[in-house]
Amino acid sequence: MNAVWSYLVAFVVWPGLLLAAPLGWLELWFMRKLVARLQGRQGPPFFQPFFDFMKLLGKETVIPRGVNRGIFLALPVVSLASVTAALAIVPLPGNPAPSLPGDVVLLLYLMEVPILCEVLAGYVSRSIYGQVAAMREALLSLAYNLPFLVAIIAMAQEAGSFQMSALQAAPYGVVHLLAALTFLLALPARMKLNPFSIANAEHEIVADSHIEYSGPPLALFKLSHAVELVLLTELFAVVFIPATPWPLVNLLVYLAAGVAVLGGVTLLATATARLRLTQAFRFYWVWGGLASAVTLAATLVR
Amino acid sequence: MNLIERVIAISRRRSPWICRLNAGSCNGCDIEITPLLSPRYDAEQLGVELHGTPKHADIVLISGTLTLRSRQAILDIYAQVPNPKAVVALGSCPASGNVFAGSPLVLSESLDSIVPVDVWVPGCPPRPQAILDGVARAAKLLEEGATKSQLESRRGRLS
Ligand code: SF4
User: B10 in ligand 1 pocket by Cβ < 6 Å?
Assistant: First the structure.
């Protein structure tokens, strides 16, 4: 019973929905504000992502004719639930959930579910634009998952275990550095940011695969994206930043590292234009592949 | 419950997402929307986002003299905007047909006779700050629940 409760607390309170949602909104606001300042604009007020979410909650949901109602409404819920469950696995300071052997595999699986939901949302919507976005997302995920998965798997090989707490506690070495770079390589595409914002290219395909979504389901998709930002940045911090014995210091360092990573990725997004799908694909298979090979080689020669 | 409704109402004012519809405009009005997103006017300060799909919009900006062919498009797009919604008419064209009135391809009727218009922004073309003001007024109406479509649905519920 105790374990169930701690999982529930981890899922609902920290690092789950109740605290991850405001954190995600904070990160979203930070990114939008930074982009605005870099473009010489004032940018949105602090509570903007929260207002956007609340407003969408109060809007009507239009379901296109001929679309399966159940799947259409279930996709955003599944996406949000899986991304929150993934966050509950990450051993952030104060996370009450016990670490399981092999939870890295579970984490990697759960992190693929929102992408799958997005692809399905595009196909289910019966909109041409949504389908193009879904196709692009599906193809792109084949590319950026190579460096992303290799970075985590190399760390697991380095730590000798598929357990998150072992990854966190692995003695610091050169593999950390290489794997962190490989991870960072995959990050902009995972966050759908600019040079790789191919699946949500608003000028070519109107909106991303959520084009037919409106009201609360759209709000849930947006929230799931915000939580995903928290998940990706905190996963980076937990795995690649050396931990101190003091949990509170750890927490502050992790949050600062997350904001720093977001700042760097936003800088890149503001400075670059969108690539074509083939270019992004080639980039990830050539340079991502190279980085992956070097990272894996470093774990093996040690 | 009341508190949540209040927060949602405030959010409607603070986060007006717009979608624009060219109903036969000379492009003069539409080109004045672009500066809203640029550093000088920066509508994002008010939470305004420009969206390409009516499904994400709260406010539709309709510009242009209304042509015979655009009538059905206006109705279709208006129907796709989820409630609550507001309509802002840009320029003199939607009100009167402007210099195009009387042309055989033009409806020569006010936009108000097709969809309920909440805010008129006069000018040919209107200045960007006037458009921004129109969006802000529409957002305020959304908060108060006083756009024509909101009033209509409330009346429908009562009767
Ligand atoms: S009001 Fe003037 S600028 Fe606007 S569409 Fe009509 S003619 Fe063009």
Answer: no
Q: If you measure from the C-alpha of residue A201 to the centroid of ligand 1, how many angstroms do you get, rounded to a whole number?
A: 29
Residue to mutate (ligand 1; options B25, B31, B66; most atoms within 8 A of CB): B25
ipTM: 0.87
| A210 Cβ neighbours under 8 A, 6+ residues apart | A118, A121, A130, A218, A221
pLDDT in tens, A95-127: 777 778 888 888 899 999 999 998 998 888 888
* Domain coordinates in residue numbering, chain B: 3-157
Domain edges within chain A:
3-301
CATH of domain B3-157: 3.40.50.12280
Please state, in angstroms and rounded to a whole number, the distance separating the CA atoms of residues B123 and B88.
Answer: 13
Pocket test for ligand 1, best of B34, B63, B108 (most atoms within 8 A of CB): B63
Does residue B127 belong to the interface with chain A, where contact is any CB pair within 8 Å? no
pTM over 0.95: no
* pLDDT tens, residue by residue, A53-111: 999 988 888 888 888 888 888 999 999 999 998 888 888 887 777 778 888 888 899 99
